[in-house]
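Exam prep: given the inputs below (a chain plus manganese (II) ion), describe the expected output before reading on.
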Amino acid sequence: AEVPVAVAEPDVAPEIHVTVSSRERLIFPESDVTKGDLADYYVQVSGVMLPWAGNRPVSLVRCPQGRGKACFFQKHDAGSFGDHVHQVPIREKDGSTENYLYVDDADGLVACLQMGTIEFHGWGSSVATLEQPDRMVFDLDPDEGLGFDVVRKAAEDLKDHLADIGLTSFAMLSGGKGVHVVVPLTPQAEWPAVKDFADRFSRALSAAEPERFVATMSKAKRKDRIFIDWLRNQRGATAVLPYVARARAGAPVAAPVSWAELRDIDRANRWGVRDAAELIERARSRALAGWGFADQVLPDL
Ligand code: ATP
Ligand code: MN
Ligand code: MN
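Solution:
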């Protein structure tokens, strides 16, 4: 299969055809980040973000009155976002069909911003191959009180275990507390097989090191452990997408990092919406060249 090139977009800012109203509204009051600032951030990073975020169903975290006020998670829409936010009909478990949202350009991102969106979360498959995931995500969720060094070590161990079975993986700071270990896939296996793989891989790790890892949702079992949230890998589930701003204090963003860089990073919210220029430069750097790309299929487990 042909491996797309992530960094082919030119550096010129895209022309935007969507008007952002109330640009002065404070979305991150504690950081002085307005709706206009946030829209500008997404326009700036759109070239490096869209290869990961474009052309896949997204769920939006909308906080029309700003972070900390009422926010809601939105999966479907009948068209109120305008022409730049596209819809793809998807069959639900109960047999009905719902229109999911996707964007494919900076106008689409801005149209979502105009509607009060802060975060974009994506399916693990693209609209072209909805039933065949093109990425698997292990979302490492540390129990409260665990330091980032523990998360980092867990991510590195996942990477090594994945490499042992022939899978290349990449690290992303969530912008919150944890790290996501991303495994690109050539779209081939369907959702049930990918989910089953993620489940069995995660359970094997927690069985081997129960004092470090837990692979079940149960909060009670998480004490001082890292929850390997493999449930991101079922049809309809989402994970936060690279370069997304998080609706958390300080306006942090989800940021791809190389495995070498991760060793020197001490928190998952290392970069924020004020760092657009640095994030773009990083995205085009040697350290991140090829981040998120590998032409590979799941091995037998
Ligand atoms: P952190 O590192 O702080 O855990 P995170 O983005 O990984 O940040 P999680 O709470 O672990 O946050 O959530 C993992 C993913 O589950 C999210 O990225 C999101 O896509 C999905 N998710 C979270 N909350 C909801 C929700 N209310 N409805 C649907 N999906 C959700
Ligand atoms: Mn998480
Ligand atoms: Mn989680």
